[in-house]
Structure formats: C-alpha cells, structure tokens
Amino acid sequence: MSEINQIRIVFMGTPNFAVPSLKSLAEAGGNVVAVVTQPDRPRGRKRELTPSPVKQEAVELEIPVLQPERLRAPESLAKVLAFEPDLIVTAAYGQILPKSLLDVPRLGCINVHASLLPKYRGGAPIHHALIAGEKETGITIMYMVEALDAGDILSQSSIPIEESDDVGTLHNKLSVLGAELLLETIPDLLKGEIVARPQNTDEVTYSPNIRREDEEIHWQKSARQLTNQVRGLHPWPVAFTFWEGKPLKIWRAHELDEPVTQLPGTILRAGGDGIVVATGDGALVITELQPAGKKAMTAEQLLRGRPMKPGTRLGDC
C-alpha cells in the first residue's frame, strides 16, 4: 500500500472506536503526520485527567498530538494547517470541522461513520440502530461537508446485527470494519477510481446523542421494543426503570412471547431464571440489573436478599 506513503495525513479522532483506524493507517505505512484529539478530561471516581484512547495510541506510535479545546479558534487551525495535510481522516472526533479547514487538503476530508448513510446521521448511530431493531448496519466513508454527515459517499460495507449484539459488541465489530474499509478506500481514492455518490435525502434518518429520557423504560411498549432498548443502551449508558421509587438499571433482558393481561410494568414472577415483567405486548425477562447504590448483579443474586413480589409494579407509576 505504498500510495499512502506519498501523502501527508492528519488523523482526527477521540474514543476507542477511532483507534483501529489510526493504528491500521500507521501499520500500513501511512504517513500520519499529526493526530488531533479532544483535550484530556477528568475520569473515574478520582476525576483524574485522562488522555483519550486516540491520544494514547498516537503516543505509542510516536505521532505528534494536538488537543485544541476549540478547533475553530484561529490559533488551533493554524497549528493543524502547519502540518500541510494532503488528506484529513476523521473518526468520531467530537468537533465539527470548519469550512476554512475542510477546503485545505487537496484530497479533501473524509470521515469513518458507523452507519449505512443516509440512515443514522449523528453522534449515536450504533445505539439507535439497535433500539430501532435494525437487522444490519455498517460503515460509510464519505467526504466531509459543513452539514452533519451529509457528504458524498465514497464507500460502504455492511454487517448483520445478530440477536446477541449490544452496543459494546457492535461497536467493536464496526471499529474494526471501519479500519478495514478505510485502508481499502484511500488507495482507490488516490488512483481516482472512486466516483463519490450523493446521499439520497429522502432516506435520511438521524441518531442524536442519547438523552436521559431515552434511557427510561416505558412498560407500555412491546417486549420486543424493550429488548431492543436494553441492548441498544448496553453497556452504556444503560436503560433504567423505577423500583420502590428509586432508579433500577436494566443491564440485560430478553422478550418472552406469552399472553399477558396484567398492567404493563407488573412483575409476573421472579426466580433464578429472571424477573418476568408485563409489557404492552408480551413479557420482558430481566436477567441482570443494578439497584440504586449497588453494583450490577444477576436477578438471582438480587432476589436472594430482596424479594420482588408478583403484582408489584415497576416504573414511574
């Protein structure tokens, strides 16, 4: 892949999702002249300043790192432009690139996005694809423009969403797929063998960042919808309901196809196999959960110390 040795690449990314793309570029001999990532942030109980996963990888690769608080600030732009990039590659960077930067690289700015655009533009495509019950998703590599994830598509690759998938497993699959597709796309881009295609605006959907209200379980929904919600929020930020007036996080659950006549949110039975709760259509079996002030545990572990009586209702009711 000698072609990518000949161009100056600035890579922009922040979370774990972007690490395989950066690492693959470097291992393939790409001339990554700088990495731009978010500033170190306080993390953990001690709130210690912690570098982003992309910064940690860049340090390992001995690549210069820039961490502007505001990329749009003139002094921040000047530092990036000083590296004279031929191509800018972004993957979950976390800031919008201004037009004054987008227009500079002669080969443009391209983005690794975790959906099959034009579906799921925005910051949480993996979560929303699962919550919506999609059967497949994938990676899109597209040109960046000023509008959100609206640039012309260079390449795409799809994978099935398995019933066992959650945000964690799908995130890991897509991060690897993104790195692979990036390495396939850049050489073809350099050879002029890609004809970028506009997105079909009639098919656009959005995936905004998850809000607190998106995490709450509404038991009037069907068991299938709630199963998708739970796995679409696992392992972060995690779905929740209320039990005895306090938040109860639901880490793992699955639907049970049985007729239900009780009010949604009613506990039907509780045992070693899980806590079975009535929904608007069918029942949800909770197998792993986290009471307020406690660690996550199995339903069996919880029930040893705190019984959940049939007829009790969960939720804000």
UniProtKB/TrEMBL annotation:
Residues 209-306 form the Formyl transferase C-terminal domain. It catalyses: L-methionyl-tRNA(fMet) + (6R)-10-formyltetrahydrofolate = N-formyl-L-methionyl-tRNA(fMet) + (6S)-5,6,7,8-tetrahydrofolate + H(+). SUPFAM superfamilies: FMT C-terminal domain-like, Formyltransferase. It is an enzyme of class 2 (transferase). One of its GO terms (cellular component) is cytosol. PROSITE patterns: GART. It comes from the Bacteria. Pfam families: Formyl_trans_C, Formyl_trans_N. (6S)-5,6,7,8-tetrahydrofolate binds at S115, L116, L117, P118. HAMAP family: Formyl_trans. Attaches a formyl group to the free amino group of methionyl-tRNA(fMet). The formyl group appears to play a dual role in the initiator identity of N-formylmethionyl-tRNA by promoting its recognition by IF2 and preventing the misappropriation of this tRNA by the elongation apparatus. This is Methionyl-tRNA formyltransferase.
